[in-house]
Structure formats: structure tokens, C-alpha cells
Design a protein that fits this description.
- InterPro entries: Metallo-B-lactamas (IPR001279), NDM-1-like (IPR050855), RibonucZ/Hydroxyglut_hydro (IPR036866).
- It is a single chain.
- With 337 residues, this protein is an alpha+beta fold.
- The protein has a single domain, classed as 4-Layer Sandwich (Metallo-beta-lactamase, Chain A), CATH 3.60.15.10.
- It has 7 helices and 19 strands.
- The strands form 4 sheets. The protein has an 8-stranded mixed β-sheet.
- α5 crosses α6.
- The protein binds zinc ion.
Length: 337
């Protein structure tokens, strides 16, 4: 099935020509935000691949188009009293670091990743050091190399999914990866705390970052469950069950969370959506065959087509899963095989 959504008016230097997964729920949000909102800031002389939206006094959301056919992606900047935090670094196209400096000046930066995927972590090498969950370090290390962008081009060097200037990819450079435990507190100065909250399933160490001051949780790609890679640590985390357990742990604090900012799609979702996510995860664990939709999906990185089941989330999108990544025991068995 070929999808051709009407393009949203854009001055970005990138031009998408493949859409694998943008859903109808996201398009109108992007349309209104990107074409009509007064929150938008654009600095093409610094980074022509990113739009900035000031969502709170000290919180910026940076939008960039996906380079590999998947969902357009958000990175975030929290301008703290003493330090600024960068949550995810995009594909590594354009001068994202320069853009961050434009927003927060010369403040020291704490760079963190929700997880290691292309669209969230390939800009890491613009920075000296990046933090993530200790359960994501192994995957992050694998991607600390100059070939991470090769899959975006065909054998003739042409872009496979989105038109962009190859010379605008950042220069690759090794950087330090630091894993921290669930609940780790980052201090942005004067007691401004941001907490790593493990929300696994999409990857072994996929995590949210909870801004205690604004009561916003930045959740990354929570909800799309992806199989563990054979041989890697924490295969049990790549399951609906692990996501359910993490949300159960967070449940007593859900009332204090005012807003959810995911890595794709609608920002400023109500904290209630975490509860709806938990309900969907519990329903899947009760009976994985009671999915709401079944679809086939091609993965450009592995070249495989897989059957994906979806359980819709009230006021949200869906938990995507397959028959092998619902229960921890199945992923542990799969990792041994
Ligand atoms: Zn992801």
C-alpha cells in the first residue's frame, strides 16, 4: 500500500517521498502546528532541517522530518537554571548542536537519549557525551560508528526515502556513552530535576525523562514493541509485559504528570494517556489475539516484512506487537535460540 499524504507546507531543506507510518491522527496535528501556530521558530542559517516550537517558557520541541520513511521526529531542549538538557538528537542532519546553542546560549549541556534508534540518536556524535538507560548501552555502542547512515542511500548514492543533501550529515566522531539506572536524577541546577523513567518494550532500555518542574514526561517511542536482537542483554525488556510492569510502577505518580511529550506525533497529551497505555498493555497480556488491527510492515533496516498486531489506545495511537514479544519468557527463549 502506497501512502501519499498531502504535504504540509514547509521551508525545511528535506523533502519526504516515502511515508511508511504517518497515521491520520498525526497529520492534522502537524498541519495546524506547522502551518498556523505562532510558536514556530526557524533558523535556516543554522539548521535548515529543524523547526523549533516553544512549548513552555523553558521547553523547546525541535521537529525534523524522518529520513527513512518512518515518523517525523521530535527532539527536546529543557533550558534549566544552570544547565540545559537535550532529549534525543535526531538523524544527525544539519547543525542541531548549533540550534541548541541558539536556544540556550553557552550553558553546559546534558544530552540524553530515549533510545538508540536512527531518528533519536544519530545526531549524538555532535556531542561529547550522551546518557541513556544502562539497558540501552549495548545497542548504543553498536551504532557508535561512521556507517550508521549508509542505509539511507541506494547503490548509486541516491536518497531512498527523503531528499536531503548528503553533505549536511554531521561529521561522524566517536563519543562517550554513559548508562544510568532507572530513576536516575539529572540536576539542571538549583534543584531542577529530570528523572530517567524506564519505559521499555520498543527497545531494551527505551526510557522517558520526567521533568519534575514542568510535570512533563518525554516518553520517546513508548508503545511500539520491537523484538530483541539475538545475543543482546535484557531481551525480556522487549515485551508488552515489560512495558506493563514499568507503567504499573509509574501508576501511583500518574496523577502528578500533567503532560506527555512523545518522540513522534502529538505533543502535550494529557497525563491520562499513560493510564490508557497501561490499560491497552494489560488487555494485550490478557489475550494477545484480541488485537484491533493486523498489518504487515516492511523494515528498511532489516529488509524483513513482519505481521504486526495493534491494540488501539484511547486518545492515543496504538501498541504495536507480535506474537513473540508479548511475554518476557518468549523473548528470553528467542534470545537463546
Ligand atoms: Zn524508535
Amino acid at each position: 500500500m502506497k501512502r501519499l499524504p498531502r504535504p504540509i507546507k514547509s521551508d525545511l531543506k528535506s523533502r519526504r517521498f516515502v511515508w511508511d507510518e504517518e497515521r491520520a491522527i498525526r497529520w492534522p496535528y502537524y498541519k495546524i502546528l506547522r502551518e498556523f501556530s505562532t510558536l514556530k521558530q526557524f533558523y535556516p542559517e543554522i539548521d535548515p532541517y529543524a523547526e523549533v516550537y516553544r512549548m513552555r517558557d523553558n521547553v523547546y520541541a525541535c521537529f525534523s522530518e524522518s529520513l527513512d520513511g518512518a515518523g517525523d521526529v521530535w527532539s527536546f531542549v529543557i533550558d534549566g537554571p544552570g544547565k540545559a538538557m537535550v532529549i534525543d538528537t535526531g538523524f544527525g542532519i544539519g547543525d542541531f548542536k548549533g540550534l541548541v546553542k541558539k536556544l540556550v546560549g553557552d550553558k553546559p549541556l546534558i544530552v540524553v537519549n530515549t533510545h538508540s534508534h536512527y531518528d533519536h540518536a544519530y545526531g549524538n556524535c555532535q556531542f561529547e557525551r550522551c546518557y541513556c538507560s544502562e539497558a540501552e548501552v549495548a545497542r548504543m555502542e553498536k551504532k557508535n560508528n561512521p556507517h550508521i547512515w549508509d542505509y539511507l542511500f541506494d547503490e548509486n548514492g541516491n536518497c531512498r526515502f527523503t531528499e536531503f543533501d548528503r553533505n549536511d550529515l554531521v561529521k561522524w566522531r566517536e563519543y562517550e556513552i554513559v548508562g544510568v539506572e532507572d530513576g536516575h536524577i539529572f540536576d539542571l541546577g538549583d534543584g531542577y530535576e529530570v528523572e530517567l523513567v524506564m519505559l521499555p518494550g520498543h527497545s531494551p532500555g527505551q526510557s522517558g525523562y520526567y521533568d519534575h518542574h514542568n510535570h512533563i514526561i518525554f516518553t520517546g517511542d513508548t508503545g511500539g514493541i520491537c523484538d530483541a536482537v539475538p545475543g543482546e542483554p535484557y531481551p525480556e525488556n522487549c515485551t508488552v509485559e515489560a512495558l506493563r510492569d514499568a507503567l504499573k510502577k509509574l501508576e501511583p505518580r500518574m496523577d502528578e504528570i500533567e503532560a506527555v511529550f512523545p518522540g513522534h506525533g502529538m505533543l502535550d497529551q494529557t497525563g491520562e494517556t499513560l493510564r490508557y497505555l497501561l490499560h491497552a498493555a494489560e488487555a494485550i497480556l490478557e489475550d494477545p489475539e484480541r488485537y484491533d488491527e493486523m498489518t504487515e510492515r516492511f523494515s528498511p533496516s532489516t529488509g524483513e516484512t513482519k505481521k504486526i498486531m495493534m491494540k488501539y489506545i484511547y486518545q492515543g495511537s496504538a501498541i504495536r506487537y507480535n506474537r513473540h514479544n508479548v511475554y518476557k519468557k518468549d523473548q528470553i527463549k528467542g534470545a537463546e535460540a
